[in-house]
Amino acid sequence: MVRVLFLRRRWMKLAGSGVILLAGMVFFLLNQKGLPVIAPSAPGELTEHLTTIFTARARALVNGNYEGLEAFYDATTTSGRFALNHEIGRIKYVQEWLQKRQVTLTGSHLDLAVVDSSSEGDKGWASVSQHLILSYRHQGEPQETVNRMGFRTLHWVELVKRDGRWLINRDWYWDPFETDDLKPEIAPGTAICKALPPPVKGKYRREAAVAYADRYSGVRLGPGDGRYNRKYRDFTGLGGDCASFASQVLSDKEAGGIPRDWVWNYHNGEGSQAWAQAAALVYYLLDSGLAVRLARGDFQEVTRSTSNYPYGAVNALQPGDIIGYEEGGELSHVSVVVGRDSAGYVLVDSHTADRYHVPWDMGWKSRTIYWLLQVVY
């Protein structure tokens, strides 16, 4: 994680210095079999090779078949092999998650922007923005059922030219799919509940909070989407923007409308620790009385039936509530609950990595500890 964060800062430094220029936009559709239908691509040899590489990777992620991906990586270097193995690992994770949760992918849409690219001799560099929308349904649901979840990843890619082809030597990005724990031991069919909990009364504007989260999730679902709210600084290069995004959802006048104070505040491009840091935000919400913790535990603990939560604590969450993610004893991420899919699975939005209507546990490990916070303001 430290390695990725350092390189992410490099990306943000490049962006802030004005180096990033719009070089081309490429749109894809992947059908149910994962075969790409590609619109006319932007000119440039490097861009064309990147288009081919990212299309093949998206196809492999969707259909689970990663054979042949090695053709796009420089396997003669340690960094090239690492990038390839990381990609294979995340594909395995996604396929295992789908199997454990009894979910079937039914289609996908890839929106790829090669934001900037350059080359010198046999070495190349590029910054790439990828929006991936996955359609899915739960097993047993009608064929016409469609749920959509979306991800945005920003890549800084180093390439090398071998035998006339550009190959990936390094690929740095915030990955929404963890790859070092590929066997989440979870019983199939758990954590699903269509029985909605009674609404929480209060001043918190939950519908507006969800609408804000969807609008500024960073994931492009159509024209005008795929942006952060420019009123706020992007803290991605300073450790992550997830807490700032959650703070916006909770407090912005267009969103939840919870009043800020001197501990939890944003002013002149700067956010307080409670505003911009995941653990500090969680503790602030609890200590201030703005939220209560329904449960803290691993997947099985927060989904099992108890006397207080017959359908599991996670199913007591309401749209606009907060989930914290603890790994290795550290609260490192927060997301915003935005609703449920057709089967009743709780969905979240977040920044870093950007997620839109993603199942709340997708991309996390079997060892992850979840903090379920209900806003009571």
From TrEMBL:
InterPro entries: Amidase_6, NTF2-like_dom_sf. Pfam families: Amidase_6. Residues 203-369 form the Putative amidase domain. Keywords: Membrane, Transmembrane, Transmembrane helix. The chain crosses the membrane at residues 12-30. This is Amidase domain protein. It comes from Neomoorella thermoacetica.
